[in-house]
Amino acid sequence: MPPRARRKPLPASLSPARREFAQAVRTLLDDTGASLRSVERQIHCSRSALDRLAWGKVQVPDLQTVLDLRQLAERKNPAGTVTGEELQHLLQRVSDEDKRTAAGPAADGVAHADDGAPAAPAAGTGSPDGAPVPAADGDRRNSFAADILWPVDELALHLDSGRYEHAVGMLDYAGGKASAVESAAAIKACRGRGLAEATDALLRKVGSRPEEIVFAVVGHLIDAGDVADARALTQIRCRSGRMSSPPVPMTHRD
Q1: Which helix (H) or strand (E) holds 53?
Q2: How do residues 112-155 score in pLDDT, each as one tens digit?
Q3: Are 76 and 34 in contact (CB under 8 A)?
Q4: 3-state class of 165 per DSSP?
């Protein structure tokens, strides 16, 4: 059994579901018995992204990245680690918790105590309607790029401090591996911060991804009011010669 890494406790401000998910990520990292640098190379995910997952800072965690981490942990620790089913369940809890928070304390029909914590459910309540299934890329029912606080300040700090390896890692992940909604949030955040080169790099990286991801990012950008970058991304994809169907209209939807 690999030794457990010494990490600072998770912040008390984390919600219960996010705390459990971050702790599961920490367990997976411990079970690999490897450094973040080594894990980064083996699952092709930046150290910055892994660190943010372990601190519960990712608004919309990428399921595939977490599953890749789990597979690595399982290879290194055959005795057993966090299961894929447990991870999907935790991700669903994070999603449900975010929706309840966004809708307000009484929107889910669950009584809440004075401190905001859910009270014990009455008989027949408090159970999900279906099995936990992570939302697919491009599903705008639950998440919008405008609602995600992508860590653009962290990126700017890396650039200002000359830590270009970390900056590139963040851009590689956000543009090449993150969910469509997080990629769109990264583009919007970099554009809003005036990081034109970073924005262009993200657009190029997203433009080389599978077509359904590109279309989903375009849709999220439009929903977030960033029509110019949605158009630019579509043009990048068209110039690549791999656009097999017409892009979505460059107008806002009601």
Answers
A1: helix 47-54
A2: 444 444 443 333 333 333 333 334 444 443 456 666 778 888 88
A3: yes
A4: helix
Residue 169 is encoded by which pair of tokens? Answer: 């890692």
Instruction: Extract the tokens encoding 137.
Output: 């890329």
Instruction: Find the radius of gyration of the CA atoms of the chain.
Output: 19
pTM of the model: 0.46
- The answer to whether 35 and 50 have CB atoms below 8 angstroms apart is no
Give 140's Cβ-side CA count (13 Å radius): 17
**Contact at 8 Å (CB) between 31 and 70?**
no
Q: Which residues are within 8 A (CB) of 116 and not within 5 positions of it... i.e. 6 or more apart?
A: 105
Q: Facing residues of 118 across strands?
A: 112
Within 8 A by CB and 6+ apart from 162, the residues are none
Query: How far is Cα 145 from Cα 223, in angstroms, rounded to an integer?
Result: 8
Would you state the structure tokens that stand for residue 243, as one six-digit string? 């656009």
| pLDDT tens by residue, 34-74 | 988 899 888 888 788 888 888 888 777 777 788 889 899 99
- The structure tokens listed for 90 are 């935790």
Q: What phi and psi, each to the nearest 5 degrees, are found at residue 162? A: 75, 15
CB 72 within 8 A of CB 42: yes
**Could you write out the DSSP letters of every residue in 142-164?**
T--GGG----HHHHHHHHHTT-H
Nearest in space to 174 (alpha carbons), one of 184, 188, 165, 164: 184
